[in-house]
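Colleagues,

Please find the record for the two-part complex below.
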Amino acid sequence: MISYLLIILIGFSAVGVSVVQLVGEYLLTQRIRDDRRIVESTAAIVSPSVELRNASELYTTCMESARNYGGRFLVLDRDGIVQIDTDSELTGTSFSVPEVNSIRDGGNDDYGFYDTGSNGEFWLHAALSFYTNVKNMHALYTCRLPGSTLSAGILVYITSVQEIYTGLRSIQLRILSWLLIVAILVLIVSSLIMRSFTIPLGELNEGIRKMSSGDLSSRISVRGKNEFSELAIAFNTMSERLETLDNSRSAFVSNASHELKTPLSAMKILIESLIYQDPLDPGMAREFLGDINHEIDRLNRIVSDLLTLVNLDSDSTKLNLTTFSLNTLISEQVRRLLPLARENGIEINFEAADEITLSGDTLKLQQVFYNVIDNAIKYTPRGGEVNATLERSGRNAVIRIADTGIGIPAADIEHIFDRFYRVDKARSRATGGTGLGLSIVKQIIQKHGGSISATSTEGKGTTFEIILPVNKS
Amino acid sequence: MMKISRLLFVLFFCLIIPVADAEDIRFDLPDPQSFGNDNVSYSRVVTLCCVTPDASEFTYISRNVSADTHEELIENTLFELWNSGYSSDYVFHDIPVPGFELANGTLTVNLPCDALSNRSERQLMAIAASISNTMLAFDDINAVNVLIDSQSLMISGLPIGTFTHTIDSMLLLHADIETARTSAMIGDPSVRSALIYYPAANGNFYLPYCCELTIDPTDPVTPVLNALTSVKEDALDLIPLTNLTESIVPYSISVDEYGKRFLSFDTTTEIFNRSADTGIPDKVYFGAIVLSLTSFVPGISYIRISDGRTLTRNDFVSMIGSTSQIYSISDSGDPVCESVVMGRHASVTPVGVLAELFTRGFPFDPDSPLKFAQTDILGITISDGRATVDLSAKFYTRCQNLNAEEEHKQAYCMINTLCVLPEIDSVRFTIEGKEMDTFVHNIHLSAYLMPDYGLTTSKGED
């Protein structure tokens, strides 16, 4: 704000000074021109009296000119001694100012500006010294008088230019007054404007401060519709996402800890049973070791899935893109899982309405369809069906995998892609799931620019719909 | 001898000054040295109006005239006129150089009676015009009255009056003469300029004043007497002779046993009473009448009054005075310009007017604003209009404590007073013969300074 004020002050001052200077120069130039004419004409009039040394006529002529022109005339001799002074103050004294000395030294007619004191002193001034407190500014003109026979040789005309200086000072004061008024107005207006800036910024700052201290629930109020409201909305969105992410992270860490701890606890119990069993039953020991091995496998899968997710989360992960037939890829996964389906007494089908070729990471997409179909088989009771379909919809390939399984409660359907989220935790763990499968699926689909969604009716089955963008060709 | 007198002067000065002005502030003066004297030297180029031998025209020649006094300058100018070129061959060769009176801006030239011998009216008029044309060129002369043997010139018995302007050509002069003759013959009144001598306000002098009179050929006396009864409003220095005509009428003109014409008044005691009423001494009262009438009415040698006394012009000539402007300082310290009536010789000399100024504030009072009272004038030299005034150290010493304004007044009172004289246009000062650069403050004493007419206003204007 002070910067604005300074800029305005400097600007106004520059304009003010320039205006005063220009007006002053114009007025003084006009005045100098007129006064020089007066001096020259008076010099021509008084010259005969000077030549004749007629002091009476010289005085009368000078007085008449002084009355006509409203100034003061001095007639100096060649030595600079005042012979005639229409104010009768300086007669007989030496009048030594630079303009007079210049003529005495052979120079030309000249003029200067002087402030005069009450005792008749003359103080030389610069032409436009408006900033000094001049009281009685006078212009002084000198003119050489013709003739050499008489001692009088220089005519000096002194005229007040105080009215010009007073006028200029008045303009100066007026500009200064306006400057102050404008400065005050600017101060008020800029304060109001700055408040509209500083309040949202302060709120934002406060929100950031709270956020940095760990309070991600902090939101800032959105006022109006401007850049600051957009910033507030963006901040709030960011806060929400960060809060969600933080919650997810917390949940993830909690879930991951729980998932990792479960097999470890089982293994600890089994190993302690073996340690404290005396005598050791070889059959039981083998069984326990088999269980331990099973828990290790499970732990290994969890860790593998976590690594896969971490890799997928990383932006640096690059897809190994190849062009392949989606029909073939899906049918292969169906075929791979066909034994499992038969084992569980589930019929599995795949129907493709269109032949679709797309560009993608075949290994990762194989994992997607494997996981989804595998899930469908696991949560479909014996005698059920799992049907996979493929069709083109515009520029997308739409894959639907529908089962006739137990379905997912509506409250859980939106969390099924969360990490370590299980609808039925006991059943899921029993089926050997890690709780990361659908998260991995979603990540891979999103990496390919597609999307995955699920619709489910509890007790009737669930349908996953995967949409993948198809090659332009 | 000169050295001894100079030494005595210095010795006298050194002894007297400290005693006389013990109250004055002392200061170091340069060694006094001889400078100038009490005389004034004038030098001026004058234009002489001469008459050609056949009296048919005027011719003009220039002469450089020098003199020690202003009156001597007038005298020398007349001398040059008498002895120059054409004039001496024909017109003036047998006439002695005349006497004259310069007073109050008027010049009365009194030709000797020899001028009348074998000269016609026209020749006498040519002589008078030549004199007036020459003398009116002087700045301080604005009227010239030419008399012969103290009697007025006449044309056909009527006075020619006073010359107040130059007559450019002889033809014009002849035309004037013819007009006057015709007027005299047919008895028409005519207008003439006349010098009327009024008693001065101070009662010691007569001041000539030039008036226009309408003259009846049968009675040139009454207009003069009427003129004496009143003065113009601006003539503050003059005293009119109120109710004069009632007292002295009638008069008569007679011729005595020597063939001289005289004018006699049948005065009564009443006139003396009246003169007593006016406060004017009777001698002064009659002197004004005698001077005015004899200077204008032609052929009158003297005036006889009823008590048998005969009064001639010469009885009162020495009492003709003149006015001069004296710039002084009032008791309140303000510069004032006074019109002072002085003896006619003193009024035209620098020493005279300066001495008159220095009588102000007598005796000297240290508290008085007049610091030049009783200052000694050691010498005045005038050359080419520039006066150098040498003053005694007394004045300079007294001025040591003055401020710039007071100093200005002191200096310019002297300068203005001196520059009233037509022969002076600027003044410089020396102290005891030594040039002083500046006065106590800023006034440049060594520079020739012109008068400062803004110094004061005259008392008459107040």
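Confidence is low (pLDDT under 50) at residues 1-39, 458-462 of chain B.

Comments are welcome before we finalize the supplementary table.
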